[in-house]
Design brief:
The protein is mostly helical. The protein is 43% helix and 8% strand. The protein has a two-stranded antiparallel ribbon with strand order 1-3. Strands 2-8 form a two-stranded antiparallel ribbon. A two-stranded antiparallel sheet has the order 4-5. Helix 9 packs antiparallel against helix 10. The longest helix has 26 residues.
Length: 493
Amino acid sequence: MKSLIKKTLYSLAAVACLSSCTDSLTLAPVSQITNASFWKSPEEAAGGLNGMYYRMRTQATTNFFMWGEGRSEIWVQNFGFDPSINFYVFTNNLSRVNPGPNWAGMYTAVHDANLIIKYVPGISFTQEADKNQILAQAYAMRAFLYFTMTKTWGDLIIVDQPTEGFDPNTIYKERSPQSEVFAFIKRDIEQALSLFPNNSFPAGRNKWSKPALNALKADVYLWTAKRMGGGASDLNTALQAISEIENSDVRLLDNFSDIFRFNNKGNQEVILSVRFEEGEVGGRSVYGGITALAAPTAPFTPQEVINKILPYSGKDTYWQISSPVAEQFKDDDIRKDASLIRVYQTRDGVTSLMYNLDQKWPGALVGGVRVMYDDYIVYRYADIVLLKAEAKNALGQDPSAEMNLIRRRAYGANFEANRFVSGTQEANDEAILQERLFELIHEGKRWWDLVRFNKALEKVPALAGKTQNDLIFPLGEDILSLEPLVKQNPGYE
């Protein structure tokens, strides 16, 4: 972490905007400011907070998706070779030489949260609730960052103070066991819950709130219940957190596609998103940089399909939704047409599939060109409803109410033919996991779902012959060279 710390020490993103920034985070880091001159006023605390969110957004441009969906069975190679490190994520061919995105940017954001946690308590605010709101967001962010990292790499270096010197005894640390990492995460969640003044959402729903924190809490406790031996106690804690979300201003939108409409960001189904806007530094979201979009010119392609796609700008053509996944959607599932387009071509009188295009994130036409600045949704209500179904089923309870709430919207007039009926616990688990695939495809959830359900080795063809050790990412040579006390993950030595 030494070089990482040198790059980020005392650096706060978007300091220049301080009190003027609202929902958008429009500025890149522009200043190197020492703590001796900073952290003196509420405006500076707000600037530090915006800097923390800027760091989070840099991870949401690609990495959240890579860690949370890239390794799943959803994606296969399209036209051309992906020249980025993401190629090895999609193909599950990871190694210490090709490890996928590293954790450096995540620890940078942790550093920002640590600065807030250390210095904001010493700043005088007119309203104590304003101070508590900032601190709550920092604790929530730190918990989320560590949760994402421990799901990805397992054991982690726990850093709960900003690194403000270069003493090797301070900056070089061993990784702590995952059990200690989760204890740290859960303490931060409880601290944040004690600080949020109410159960409301901020404008835009693109910053941490109490409902968003309870979504994280439910996610964390469901993970530890199923992966860390937490059992019924953790499952019940997850359900309690979900009940708090249900008492907030959330609902399923009537129209599935409305969730993702470019001009409907921050709608009532969204619990937490990462905001992207045209013209911002780092404004292009993952949905403009990962998945396949090519101009279909075959005469068989219907004009309405062409109209959905063109004109376009900034989408790569390396990856596409796999046919085995696309074929699992029923024709009467509204989410099918809202999530993908199957593009065909006709040659010599023979019609064949060209590729499966993602359609969930439509972008927007700006100046006659389709641009991709869709938000990255971290949590939305349908995700939480299905987490509730999962927790209930794990406790031996009937998940039918939650499953049918999701299916009623998904199938509309055809709901009765697709009504969920509870079966065995194993059969219910399979149905819930499948429902999460249909509902949350292309939202960065699938890989972690597969791991949580212990189904990754079974359902991802690229993992054939691999073991549980392969479910976490390796550490790259860059990280290992900077961290002399950090050891490689098992299976990647």
